[in-house]
């Protein structure tokens, strides 16, 4: 009888875990390290995938909170932005760019990364308002990077963008262009929940984020050499800006109004 009660208690504890979604890119490694080493994993069920998939999981209610593209905000009935952390940029982000073999004025077509929601919308906005450029957009599928050639460019995000940097002569950083265009930082993704999350849990959650961000060298050392296709110290300290500041919120609100 005691064994049955114990098993039921364990099941209830498992069912009460918060379902958290995070992208499986290099830019989240510091945050995930914090989850793993701060004790938070006892309270969460972690799902890792590419941004557009995590976004759909949040829209569908399959997760309670996710580090998701901010462009999905209009699709959520009751979005909450309770965390102090995000994936943002106050200068060139390096991992969200338009890659091309020719300069912007010669680009005729652009593949849109299927793994992205926010970045492809940002590209559309910048091409219209900043570069004043009309192009044909192509919804990309897996393997599209190899089709970027001639007058056909492509939006690439995440680790694949870092790996692609040596391959292309022209790289247009979308965060850098947004900052030039608006004077505001950009937020690609932030922790968004589709329901109220208790303040006690969010306090522990943010402490876990901070824990990992305070141990960047440990994060870098844990990443296999073959995955370090870019200077990760620069990436974590100069390209990605993790604090969800008031200025970043202004940038995010302006972006959402532009959709």
Keywords:
6-stranded mixed sheet; globular; 10 helices; 2 domains; D-Maltodextrin-Binding Protein, domain 2; single chain; alpha/beta; 259 residues; 5-stranded mixed sheet
Task: Describe the fold and architecture.
The protein is α/β, with parallel strands linked by helices and 259 residues long. The chain has two domains: 2-90 and 185-258, D-Maltodextrin-Binding Protein, domain 2 (3-Layer(aba) Sandwich), CATH 3.40.190.10; 96-182, Periplasmic binding protein-like II (D-Maltodextrin-Binding Protein, domain 2), CATH 3.40.190. It is 40% helix and 22% strand. The protein contains ten helices and eleven strands. It has helices at residues 2-15, 29-38, 51-59, 118-129, 158-164, 174-182, 199-213, 216-222, 232-239, 246-258; strands at 18-23, 44-49, 65-69, 85-89, 96-100, 109-112, 136-139, 152-157, 170-173, 186-193, 241-243. Strands 2-1-3-10-4-11 form a six-stranded mixed beta sheet. Helix 2 packs across helix 7 (199-213) and helix 4 (118-129) crosses helix 6 (174-182). It is globular, with a radius of gyration of 19 Å.
